[in-house]
Write a structure and sequence with these properties.
This protein is an alpha/beta fold. It is built from 8 helices and 7 strands; from the N terminus they run αααββαβαβαβαβαβ. α5 crosses α8.
Length: 201
């Protein structure tokens, strides 16, 4: 049986940190110790920021982005092209495209991709709202989904659902590698993929 080296409050901080993506038990302990050692500079401001974020962050009523306002800052920006909707799987994908500064339109976040093996069907994704949005002034829907098997299956499903609307349905060019996820791509690859997108037949 492992010996206890810290009180339950410290252990709780480490356990919660270990749940974050990319942080295993060892990294969580290291991050937890850094926070605790610098309580005034790190732990207390972080705790306050997290409480404020939990209280103020909402999902955008239009695109499902997270922000402190709804509609979000992207949907509210009058400089955005109202004729283009860029569909992404997750919020991290939206942030990746925004970081590359190549999207002039607005976004739509699906909340994942179709995956029958995992029990994720169309009803689990933000698809019906997308179909409702695909009407004038919208003229193009760009499916900026990951080049995984599930991502491409979702592309084919969405193309069929969007077909009656008459909007142009396009996909990212092959600058995005097969099996690649948008959040891990560099800005140049994302920019090339956006600029050389193609219309689906």
């Amino acid at each position: 049986m492992a010996r206890k080296v810290a009180g339950p409050e410290i252990e709780r901080v480490i356990q919660l940190l270990a749940r974050l993506p990319g942080l295993g038990p060892r990294s969580a302990r290291k991050a937890g110790l850094a926070l605790i050692k610098k309580r005034a500079e790190l732990l207390e401001p972080l705790a306050k920021a997290l409480l404020e974020a939990a209280d103020r962050i909402v999902a955008c009523s239009i695109c499902a982005n997270l922000d402190t306002q709804s509609p979000c800052q992207v949907c509210s920006d009058p400089r955005r092209d109202p004729g283009l909707i860029v569909v992404v799987e997750e919020i991290g994908d939206l942030w990746a495209l925004e970081r590359a500064e190549v999207v002039t339109g607005r976004y739509h976040i699906l909340g994942g991709h179709l995956s029958p093996l995992d029990g994720i069907g169309p009803e689990r994704l933000n698809i019906d709202v997308l179909i409702e949005r695909a009407q004038p002034p919208v003229t193009e829907v760009l499916l900026a989904l990951s080049s995984t098997v599930e991502g491409q299956s979702t592309v084919h499903y969405l193309r069929e659902r969007l077909s009656p609307s008459g909007v142009t349905v396009s996909v990212l060019a092959r600058g995005v590698p097969v099996g690649g996820e948008l959040d891990y791509l560099d800005d140049g690859t994302l920019a090339a993929a956006i600029k050389s997108r193609r219309r689906l037949p």
